[in-house]
């Protein structure tokens, strides 16, 4: 039963078979490089967009119960590492990319929440969300997905706690520290309002991420059918002990969310790349993308930004090697 759920519900293997049959009916050989690439492209694009619509709707509906003002009140009730844990968990029901999370981080910091707590939220929000859980489950199985979420939350809690211990409040830009968050009354939404809001977010997010999904699936199709397997194995396989570090660094200049990265990850693993290398690449892209760091630099000073990048990078590299060690046991 679980294999059926994994393969047919999350993985949508039925869709891949359907597309293959349609392409063969059109006279295209799906075993050829061109046919295989086209099948991969159509299948992954449709699958990711379908999962995207479902996930955005569910997450936005849940998120409607946690507007910024309510989230600040919830976080304000906790102290110490408990507050970091709650902030990391709340990050799982927020927007998918780090650029969307940074304005929330600024608002929480201006509201006077502890700096470490806000950084736990900032790390968790793009790195660990319900989208990553379902998408990773659809490609690599539930074990990889669950472990990914757990280690991501550990990085968020540990990173936020460490920043809190370093007392770096003076490294936040003055306009953020001196800002005053005004609590505005939140009108209680009806279920109909929440569903309408969720559908609007589905349409808006789909328009925003579609170009990245198409680009990611296109790159994945090229890797999957045109790049020789031995190239991937030599650079990102077991023969290169620095593959995790290389993947982490290569992911930083990119700007994408997990929806655009998943097809690349899927193709790399199919070609023989180590799972830890691919996980490190995913985390690097969605957590430390260059555009996000440029945006964050407007809110915090260089020292704090450097510490944040260092903490995330070390955590990502550690997670990458950890997944390499347990790869044979979980996939």
Automatic annotation (TrEMBL):
Transmembrane annotation, as ranges: 40-62, 102-122, 134-157, 209-227, 239-265, 277-296, 303-323
Keyword DNA damage attached: no
Keyword terms, alphabetized: Cell membrane, Membrane, Transmembrane, Transmembrane helix
One CC-aspect GO term: plasma membrane
Location of the protein in the cell: Cell membrane
Topological category with respect to the lipid bilayer: Multi-pass membrane protein
UniProt xrefs under Pfam families: ArsP_1
Sequence similarity: Belongs to the UPF0718 family.
Protein name: Membrane protein
Species: Ruminococcus flavefaciens 007c
